[in-house]
Amino acid sequence: MKFPFITDSIHGDVPINFYPAADTEKEIILYPSPGLDGHCTLTDCTEIRGLHSWNNYLYAVAQRGSTSIVWRIDESGGISELGTIATSASGPVWIKNNSTQLCIVDGISGYVYTPSTGLFVQITDVAFPGAAAMDYQDGYGLFVQPTSKQWFFSAINDFTSFDAGDFYSIEGKPGNILSVISDHREPWFFKGDTTEVWYNAGGDNTSTATPTFARNSGGLLEMGCGAAKSPANFDNAIAWLSEKGQLLRGQGYNAQIFSIDKFGREIAGYSQFSDAIAFAYTDLEHEFYQITFPSADKTWVFDAKTKIFHKKQSWKSGGGFGRHRANCYAFLNNVHYVGDYANGVIYTMSVDHLDDDAEEIQRILYSMEIHGGMKRLFFPSVQIEFTPGVGLVSGLNPQAMLQFSSDGGNTWSNELWRSVGLIGEYTARAVWNRLGSDFRRMYKLTVSDPVIWRVLGIHGWSK
After folding, report:
1. Could you give the dihedral angle defined by the CA atoms of residues 271, 338, 444 and 413, in that order, rounded to the nearest 10 degrees?
2. pLDDT (tens digit, 9 = 90+) per residue, 294-308?
3. Which of 229, 387, 245, 234 is nearest to 305 (CA)?
């Protein structure tokens, strides 16, 4: 019989550093999540706070001591400092561009870089009250006023110029605006318990009859946002974390919950989730929404194609595995880039990278639990079907480790290791025999060698 892997369960966990994919012959198989390779190191910096691609360059904001530095990075990894952000040193930032300028908002103030002149300046217009979040649409910068129910927009194609008459209030329900994101040329404004959708009305804002932006009459959602940096453009819509710890996806002017019970149970145990950060990316025909909970040290990923969750984890410098190293993301010239949460390294992210910048990637897979009820089941053998013949470049045989549990994953057996096969050994199999008997049984597979791990199936025999 074929044992299915866990996708949502009280016991065990969802796949870790594996993601499920459809296959015409095998139905569902598991592919390895991408690894990381260092692209450049930003001098004397720690947290990469934000990453953005524009005009064949990456732009990054990275913490350095009590300030942050804005950087420009080319495709070869060459770096140059553009300026300093003095109003905050850590935490996520918003980075957007119009046709000629780059704007950075750090939750307090705003900064603008103009490549044609090389000028990097803080926004000093008297009509600019600071910004808690921002996005860009139709030539305008859209900004959220800090600790306020108001939002405002810049002059068209000029992030440094503002007008005191270009402010609006989100009045559908009380509370301050936490974040903003534009989707299909409609800005969505997130509060703690509601969301409002606006649109470009095409006016010049000279009177109430000719507004530049206006509320969408049907665009009040009775679900809010639990983390200002969780909204992301995803799967031709918007995804975000609600104030209740649910993952939501916009459908028209409604919100659909797409998180699973296991996600909800884990989130309920986190000390907080308001610090969650998320981004979306597309790779190998799969579109992923990746959300990290820094305080909980966990990273979850949802695949829009299969509608299945998995987790990512990375080795921590202090030892042990924790959240994925990606703190922010950008896509440039068909290459995925991420910035590290704990050092000044920007990585390329690819399934061709078999480790996380020389640190091992531990991949874990749990089988669903098999129940015998009042009958004891005997387990003569288990075979895990991998893509054979991958081997290690060193010439050694990659190893897989199996454990089993009789109590729902609370305790596990000794580690049982098997070879998977050298390069070119296309008939190799990983088989574990004489696995005893239980009234209930689940399996845990762990691999970490730097090869392309594909799990085609877990086959077991019980009687």
Report:
1. -70
2. 999 999 999 999 999
3. 234
